[in-house]
Amino acid sequence: MTPRNVSLSKTTRFSIAGAALVLPLLLAGCTSATTPTPQTTLASTTQHVHGIYVDQMSSKVLLASHDGLYAAAGKTLVKVSTDTIDLMGFTPTADPRVFYGSGHPGPGSALPNPVGLIRSTDAGKTWVTLSRQGKSDFHALSATDHGLVAFDGKLRTSADGITWETSSASFSPAVLAGNPATSVVLATTQQGLQRSTNSGSTWNAVPTAPLMQFVAFAPSPEKAPTDAVGIAPDGSVHVSTDAGLTWTAAGRVKGEVQAVTALAQASGKPAIWVATADGVQSSSDGGATFGPVTP
Questions:
Q1: What is the pLDDT of residues 143-162, one digit of tens each?
Q2: Which residues of the chain have pLDDT under 50?
Q3: What strands lie across the sheet with 185-188, from one edge to the other?
Q4: How many helices (H) and strands (E) does the chain have?
Q5: Span 10-292: which CATH code?
Q6: pTM of the model
């Protein structure tokens, strides 16, 4: 379910110019990552968030940032990754200890630039290279039940993270949202929402969907996800119960949204976490209301 440089400048987000909604320049140049401290304030690091993940079992919140992977602990962040990597692309898998990422190496890292596709098997502490080193900076990256879907200027799919196929799709996604339990993938674009039912091999537009910048599935431990959450450029929240085919308006997020994730709940309304420039907010009522994440 995503979606990512120093302050997520206007070239890397939707913006509002008059009444027009403009897609970001997804592959704008990224600056070198700064040297982080093991623990830093939430507000300072959430100005650089490219992805957010919440573990289904522990509810631990992880932020993929310009300076690496961090765990949110109240108003502070604790660095998880030993290397400083600008994680422009980040996605979890069905295994809570296995993540995939992409982006640029930071100070002290021996990884190539760009890093291509990298993988962690220890919940983000260390990373190894898999493919496309020096070639790809995947700004959009997501896992499905058949592998990975990614965008580095071209939309690509891979069953094993090593061999890649280039899609014939012509759109440029801001965010790719899949889930390891399903073949459905959603992509936000300037022209509107795109949807794939075969792990990114082919795509169809969803003309009735609102124009959204961020989208994420809300997985459940019991079944493949059908709930999804989307956020428009103006912060309005939309919820789907049929894997992105139809959408219902909910509430609104205050602040500059940078990443979103969600989990299914017994209530039928997804729990939602949103990283903004001011911190992490969450909703337990399907996006109707949001409040700051607290310990």
A1: 999 999 999 999 999 999 99
A2: 1-42, 46
A3: 175-177, 185-188, 194-196, 204-205
A4: 1, 27
A5: 2.130.10.10
A6: 0.85
